[in-house]
Amino acid sequence: xxxxxxxxxxxxxxxxxxxxxxxxxxxxxxxxxxxxxxxxxxxxxxxxxxxxxxxxxxxxxxxxxxxxxxxxxxxxxxxxxxxxxxxxxxxxxxxxxxxxxxxxxxxxxxxxxxxxxxxxxxxxxxxxxxxxxxxxxxxxxxxxxxxxxxxxxxxxxxxxxxxxxxxxxxxxxxxxxxxxxxxxxxxxxxxxxxxxxxxxxxxxxxxxxxxxxxxxxxxxxxxxxxxxxxxxxxxxxxxxxxxxxxxxxxxxxxxxxxxxxxxxxxxxxxxxxxxxxxxxxxxxxxxxxxxxxxxxxxxxxxxxxxxxxxxxxxxxxxxxxxxxxxxxxxxxxxxxxxxxxxxxxxxxxxxxxxxxxxxxxxxxxxxxxxxxxxxxxxxxxxxxxxxxxxxxxxxxxxxxxxxxxxxxxxxxxxxxxxxxxxxxxxxxxxxxxxxxxxxxxxxxxxxxxxxxxxxxxxxxxxxxxxxxxxxxxxxxxxxxxxxxxxxxxxxxxxxxxxxxxxxxxxxxxx
Length: 510
Ligand SMILES: Cc1cc2nc3c(=O)[nH]c(=O)nc-3n(C[C@H](O)[C@H](O)[C@H](O)COP(=O)(O)OP(=O)(O)OC[C@H]3O[C@@H](n4cnc5c(N)ncnc54)[C@H](O)[C@@H]3O)c2cc1C
Ligand code: FES
Prior knowledge:
This protein is of the alpha+beta class. It contains nine helices and 24 strands. The protein has three domains: 19-66 and 182-246 and 349-391, 3-Layer(bba) Sandwich (FAD/NAD(P)-binding domain), CATH 3.50.50.60; 74-97 and 128-175 and 250-339, 2-Layer Sandwich (D-Amino Acid Oxidase, Chain A, domain 2); 416-495, Rieske Iron-sulfur Protein. It has helices at 9-13, 39-50, 83-115, 137-149, 181-194, 307-321, 365-381, 388-391, 404-414; strands at 28-35, 55-58, 74-75, 123-130, 155-157, 170-178, 198-200, 205-209, 216-219, 224-235, 248-261, 269-272, 279-284, 289-300, 328-339, 345-348, 355-359, 434-440, 443-449, 455-459, 470-472, 477-479, 486-488, 493-495. Strands 3, 4, 5, 6, 11, 12, 13, 14 and 15 form a nine-stranded mixed β-sheet that branches. Strands 1, 2, 7, 8, 9, 10, 16 and 17 form an eight-stranded mixed β-sheet that branches. Strand 16 (345-348) and strand 17 (355-359) form a beta hairpin.
């Protein structure tokens, strides 16, 4: 069972009554086995079960316990890689499919809420992208034109109505959405089960065998599920070792929720032109208050453990733009996967007929996950989809995002950690509740001292492709700087692509 609870997001999310499901306790057989009970996995499960397929969902944590439980839940087709750029890489038709599919995803979430009577605070709100400085108004003009070519409505407005800060210009995207993500996941899980899906939590998928006709997954408890098709909705695919992980890069992103007087800021989605950008929305709180949720300060996973500085900068930005902001009620971080050409990878795993993946969410995982829950069922059911080509995980785009070459150079550079010194020379140098990397001869160890003072030692070598992990003090996890695998303080895998834990210190490998 994973534990990724160093930050306090769970306190806010705990307002949702998420159902609990027992682990798989026998071998099983079905039409479609889905690994991952986040928004991508559960939407896929719900759609396929409604279509009459026999579905099994396996997750090693609770429902929505991955990134879906950490999202700030803007539901938007105002894409943060921008239509100007998407059009350059995927052409006008690709940009149109991008706009159409994300808009359909928000409509689909709304329809599921209505059909299944899910009370998750879903509401339609306007989105506003505002210029951080005067020069950025040209970006807005270019984006407005590209968005319109893609079929998305975007209006240039003077300032953002009702907000307390000045901005030279903004683009308004009407009729976007927001919701409470775990309340939605709770309702979706119950709806999938009503449709006949079988859901198991606390079941870690440790092995996968393709088998030509009927692939099999095996849990760490040694139970096997045999299916006609397997869907890996694990955020980062754990079935693929290399191909997909050279096409995307893992980033950490940070969020704070501050209390503000209810009604002091109009409900809406707001984000700015900085890089990395800040993203803002409002959520319900008790009494006369609302929560202003502000995110940003992204950096590559495993490459920036200066959380107090990052949270401090977020708070400073928040107070500068929203002077009524009170203290931080909740703060947390999470992971997003940035694809090399802006669009997620959703569809058949390259080279496979009956294995499917959904990954590369690019900060739009609520809509990308819902698109997965529409597109993958179409592929499995043999329904033609005009979205298939844009999201095909095997696609070769003529040009990648301009900066993506740097991502793979950056990964290569991380292997130098094999020869650098340790951060401490003895466990005695590690404070309670923290971790550090220690070198002993040629080997490196991930050493954690728990709150009671006991020391826990694992190999520091990531079992994916052998980079050296680093300590993440906000989540109390070991994070890999290469492709984003993460492990809890005791070395148990939290995020793929790694599928196994950090090795025991005498277990070889380091
Ligand atoms: C701070 C933050 C803010 C964000 N804001 C937004 C936003 O405003 N709008 C938006 O659209 N997106 C946003 N995102 C992105 C979005 O939250 C994610 O992209 C989305 O939740 C991913 O959903 P998923 O179903 O693909 O993955 P997840 O929710 O991570 O689900 C994957 C599941 O797979 C399970 N799993 C993994 N490996 C195994 C295994 N081996 N065996 C069994 N189970 C396994 C995990 O336990 C997990 O439950 C944000 C993300 C973060 C972190
Ligand atoms: S995630 Fe690939 S080496 Fe660690």
